[in-house]
Amino acid sequence: MKTLRLVPNNTKIDFVNKRMITFVISALLVVASSGLFLGKGLNLGIDFLGGILIEVRTNGPADIGGLRTQLNGLGLGEVALQEFGSVNDVLIRVQRQEGGDGAQQGAIDIVKDALGSTIAEYRRTEFVGPTVGAELKRAATWAVLAAIGAILLYIWLRFEWQFGVGAVIALSHDVITTIGLFSLLALEFNLATVAAVLTIAGYSINDTVVIYDRVRENLRRYKKMSLIDLFNQSINETLSRTIMTSLTTLLALFALYIFGGAVIRGFAVALIWGVLIGTYSSVALAVPVLLYLRPDRGVAADEDENPTAEQEVP
Amino acid sequence: MLHFPPWKKILISAVCVFGFLYALPNLFGEQAFEGLPEWAPGKQINLGLDLQGGSHLLLEVEVDAVIREQLEAMVDALRVTLRTARVRYTGLGIEGNGAVFRLRDPARNEDIRRQIAELNPDAEILLSADGVFRMQLSEEAIRDRQSSAVAQSIEIVRRRIDETGTREPTIQRQGQDRILVQLPGVKDPERVKRLLGKTAKLTFHLINATQPTGDASTKVPPGIMLLPSDDPTELAQNRRYLVRKRVELSGDTLIDAQATFQNNRPVVSFRFNSIGARKFGDITAQNVGRLLAIVLDGKVISAPNIREPIPGGSGIITGQFTTQEVQDLALLLRAGALPAPLNILEERTVGPGLGQDSIDSGRIASIIGIVLVTIFMVVVYGRFGIMADFALILNLVLIVAVLSLLQATLTLPGIAGIVLTIGMAVDANVLIFERIREEVNNGRTPISAIDAGYRRAIITIVDSNLTTLIAAVLLFAFGSGPIKGFAITLAIGIVTSMFTAVMVTRMILVTWLRITRPQALPI
User: Fold this and answer.
1) Using a CB-CB distance cutoff of 8 angstroms, which residues of chain B are in contact with residue A203?
2) Which residues, 6 or more positions from B313, have their beta carbon under 8 angstroms from its beta carbon?
3) What is chain B's percent helix, strand, coil content, to nearest 5?
4) Is the Cβ pair B423, A128 closer than 8 Å?
């Protein structure tokens, strides 16, 4: 059986010497993302802002313009409508109402009364009060910070600190640019997005760790090789795997994006972006920055076998 | 390398067999497995509310209202005591978590202190140097009262929801003063919310004899309060009832309430318990000709004229009701009143249509994801790819089995987690196979290359999977509802994929090597 080689054997692509190009690109991406985040902000969903979200299926194609005029005349503040997945489905967002948690429920009744018989089915009703919204925001922030902290702690324990710093840089880059993408495309940022961001963090680190493992192995094996050559060799040796895994994950994610339904689409977008940016940053950022951090080359020297391979794995 | 101990083969095979057994009910339905013990296979995956449809409600008990009510009762009791003792006092009212007042004649301070001490054994009585009495609830008493109000609310919520016929509701306390209600497959979530939004405190009061009604600006004599009518037309005319504050009888003496019809109008008929019936008989006997107000949550539902004594202990409530409202009112009266109002803090309701659509599209996305990934693996790794694909399918079976066994909840993000796992699960095999290719290129023999491939890749596999596992565990710890579902499937997927991709493929490879003894690896 003939097998396909996505990446030819013994590639010798000089990634590390092109680092200035990728550094500039990444710096621009990070600056642009921060600018978008600070300037334009995120399209926060009701999970964090509080408010009401109703997904309805209408009898026949929805007259979104008519519904918009009607619902915005109810005195509930801004009511946003969008087609959701099919021409019959409409997503209605009502901003958080003045007053406490009690004031919000009345708004759902008002909207449902106004919609009346044009609606075939209420597919989804979500309401988050201001109290819970604030709590979810806090919990989500903690989750992201704690996850990044725990991952770094792990890297720091398993590798030398230089690798930890390199991983932070790549990881922060991925998280910041993901947030930038959400700001740019005005995609809704909700609890599911936070889960996606954390998964991206996990994936990005996963990818970085695989290459770092090879760097560490080669550092022990080749004592005389220059760091630039050694990093290039490590990236090239793992390149085939890096691309394979990204492709299989992307295949699954595109299936999710196309067939998974409208509710999960934003989540899939975030993950697809995360896989792309995570793969890029592992190769183009995480390894080249090690050049400036000067990792220890270790003492145990064995030209042929790497020391970790000595451990008997049953 | 070729040595693979038999106990290991048995163990791996056993895990696979158990996996299949525990995953089976999801194919054949739970009925096929009825009668087996608790731990045996027979459980299907628990679907989250976003997949099976239903309502998730987070309620908050207004515990402050309970304390407020108790303090008001304390003030009333103090007023009665002071009046009966014929002492003059000033400034009686609520302050903080207690009631305060001052006697005009400080000489009676000690006497009064003794008398009010009997009112409430839980309360502390303080007397300041300038003669201000303070009767306050201790922190502990307040906490106890609030805690029991929440417990009581849960009980009432449960009764009300049971009455609506919802199957398998989950009602549990969350934190200090919150109640989480999950209603799978609920048909009319608005009705449930309406039912939970009412305190349903029913009381009977006599109406002021000299002036029964007035408007919002009417001056009321002591012991009388102004209450609005529940009837919207009367309310529009700004009509108010002058109702005696004294509660003649309250709803907790009811033993039954039913929706019925009288003169073709929907009404609620009710029955008192024996104490209530006797009291009701006495009140009606002593007050023939007067108006009796039936008050629900601070509104006068109706104020019928007592034409004759009613000794039987039953009666009806009429008002401007629809049939649905009468049914709801009867239900509320049967279930009892909440000790404090409930606020809805969060609601997530998914209709059955969307739930089924999510299951369908999740299933299609998973199948297409698997097909794409498996084809791709065969194209790239040939025979080795087939082994990895076998591991991948086994991995899915194990995820389903573990989810069924743990009775963890599968949510829509959970399905996304499974699809993501499909893509990432082959990573371990990719790492191993790439390593084997490298070793082959370095001139190793097949057996030696496979051996080195597994040994060297395993370290990387553990490192890279542990970081994702850390992210999953934290998502579980901090996340809520659906996100927890994503974290669960992601974490289970990581663990099972390490088992299938490393152990199972290795066993297959070893067996294959032993049988064919190839000269070169087809990779």
Assistant:
1) 424, 468
2) B271, B272, B273, B274, B276, B277, B278, B280, B281
3) 55, 20, 25
4) no
pLDDT beyond 80 at A311 = no
Q: Which residue of A has its CA nearest to B423?
A: A249
- Which chain B residue has the Cα nearest residue A48? B346
Q: Which residue of B has its CA nearest to A198?
A: B471
Nearest residue of A to residue B453 by CA position? A309
Query: Above 70 in pLDDT, residue A22?
Result: yes
Q: What band does A305 get if pLDDT is binned at 50, 70 and 90?
A: very low
Q: Can you give the length of chain B in residues?
A: 523
Compute CA B270 distance to the chain's CA centroid, rounded to the nearest angstrom: 31
> What is the residue-wise DSSP string for B345-405?
EEEEEE-HHHHHHHHHHHHHHHHHHHHHHHHHHHHHHTHHHHHHHHHHHHHHHHHHHHHHH
Nearest-by-CA chain B residue for A263: B358
**What pLDDT, in 10s, does the model give residues B257-270?**
999 998 888 999 99
Largest CA distance in chain A: 79
Spell out which residues of chain A touch residue B377, defining contact as CB-CB under 8 Å. Answer: 248
Please name the residues in contact with B165: beta carbons below 8 A apart, sequence gap of 6 or more.
none
Nearest by CB to B431, from A136, A198, A210: name it. Answer: A210
Determine the average pLDDT of the residues in B271-292. 91
Q: What is the per-residue DSSP string for B19-78? A: HHHHHTHHHH-GGGGTT--TTSS-PPPEEPHHHH-EEEEEEEE-HHHHHHHHHHHHHHHH
β-partners of residue B179 are: B59, B173
Within 8 A of B381 by CB-CB distance, chain A residues are: 3
Of A194, A260, A314, the CB nearest to B365: A260
pLDDT of res. B187 = 80
Q: Say yes or no: B348 contacts chain A, CB-CB below 8 A.
A: yes
Q: Which among B161, B165, B206, B315 is positioned nearest to B253, based on CA atoms?
A: B315
A209 to chain B: which residues are within 8 Å by CB?
460, 463-464, 467
DSSP 8-class letter at B207: B
CB pairs under 8 A between A and B: 251
Q: What would the two tokens of residue B485 be?
A: 């579902």
Percent of chain B whose predicted confidence (pLDDT) is above 70: 97
Looking at residue A64, its amino acid is I
Are the beta carbons of A292 and A23 closer than 8 angstroms? no
* pLDDT recorded at residue A101: 65
Confidence grade of residue A146 (pLDDT, cut at 50, 70, 90): confident
B58 touches chain A (CB under 8 A): yes
By percentage, how much of chain A surpasses pLDDT 70? 93
Contact B474 A252 (CB under 8 A): no
**pLDDT by residue (tens digit) across B210-224?**
888 888 888 888 788
CA torsion sign for B324, B330, B335, B338 is positive
Confidence of residue A313 (pLDDT cuts 50, 70, 90): very low
B503 interfaces chain A, CB cutoff of 8 Å: no
Higher pLDDT: B480 or A159? It is A159
| B378-390 pLDDT, tens digit each | 999 988 999 999 9
What are all long-range contacts of A94-99, with beta carbons under 8 Å and residues at least 24 apart?
A: A94/A51, A94/A52, A94/A53, A94/A54, A95/A49, A95/A51, A96/A46, A96/A49, A96/A50, A96/A51, A96/A130, A96/A133, A97/A51
ipTM: 0.85
Shortest distance between the Cα of A199 and any Cα of chain B, in A, equals 7
| Nearest CA-CA distance, residue B351 and chain A, Å | 5
Q: Model confidence over A218-276: pLDDT tens digits?
A: 998 888 889 999 999 999 999 999 999 999 999 999 999 999 888 888 889 999 999 99
Residue A100 pLDDT grade (very low, low, confident, very high; cuts 50, 70, 90): low
